[in-house]
Design brief:
The chain is mainly alpha-helical. The chain is built from 10 helices and 3 strands, in the order H-H-H-H-H-H-H-E-H-E-E-H-H.
Length: about 260
């Protein structure tokens, strides 16, 4: 039978060569026919000194190990020694581990090849311009929103002491006090809804004073109003500086007006 010639530089090491021989013989790494495989391995590395490879000694070390295993396999087994280990077991474990790493590296190589064929677009810093709110609202629009709030409040509110203020005397509410109350809302919030300015406990004079305060603050550019169609409400943003918001007037506002 003609010998197969192997070029050792094509293998990654002696285990790679041995695994190739086992696969060609279609045998299990856990049941290696040592005599046959050893002979083929020695034939493969014949003339190894002439090949210019860096790990020549590793091929020779494995050859010596195979010869040692072969000699152990030829010795008669001691039937009384139950712990007599198969001399092929250590080599089989090394081969199994090497095979697992080899298969993993082949999968990674395929992935790397697929990645090489992919073209990625360079990262771009896209700046989306913030659309400016261009629609202008009249005082009538804000008044209509206030009238809706007032009407809903009157329908749902229960009679309270302040409801009889017209009989026993008028409730006096300062527009300045309401301006301070609104101003305080912007200490914690950058945006405040118009509807939220009117609390459930507010009487009609308080609500009217609050509305007048909003108009006055918009006129003096201390408040800016934008209509939110989704919420059907005006959104108010502050024109105050941080220092103005933290002023003594805002901090000492009297809840009793």
């Amino acid at each position: 039978m003609e010998k197969i010639q192997y070029k050792l530089s094509a293998f990654e090491g002696p285990l790679d060569l041995l695994l190739t021989l086992i696969q060609k013989n279609k045998v299990s790494i856990w049941d290696i026919p040592v005599a046959e495989i050893t002979e083929q391995y020695l034939d493969a590395i014949e003339g190894i000194e002439e090949e210019e490879i860096d790990n020549t000694s590793e091929f020779l070390v494995l050859a010596a190990q195979l010869l040692w295993i072969k000699s152990r396999m030829l010795l008669p087994k001691d039937e009384d020694d139950e712990d007599d280990e198969d001399p092929r077991e250590d080599l089989a474990r090394r081969l199994a581990e090497y095979q697992a790493y080899k298969e993993a590296s082949q999968k990674l190589r395929k992935t790397e090849g697929a990645a090489d064929r992919m073209v990625f677009r360079a990262e771009e810093n896209i700046k989306f311009p913030i659309p400016e709110y261009s629609r202008e609202h009249t005082v009538e629009d804000l008044l209509a929103a206030f009238q809706n709030i007032l009407a809903r409040r009157i329908r749902s509110a229960k009679p309270e002491k302040r409801a009889f203020s017209g009989i026993v005397g008028r409730e006096k509410v300062s527009v300045r006090a309401m301006s301070d109350r609104i101003k305080r809302r912007f200490l914690k919030n950058k945006r405040v809804s118009f509807n939220s300015l009117f609390e459930n406990k507010d009487s009609r004079p308080v609500m009217i004073a609050t509305f007048l305060a909003v108009l006055d603050m918009i006129k003096s550019n201390k408040l800016f109003a934008e209509y939110d169609e989704r919420k059907d409400d005006f959104i108010l943003t502050s024109g105050y500086s941080k220092k103005e918001l933290e002023s003594e007037d805002a901090a000492t506002y009297d809840e009793e007006y």
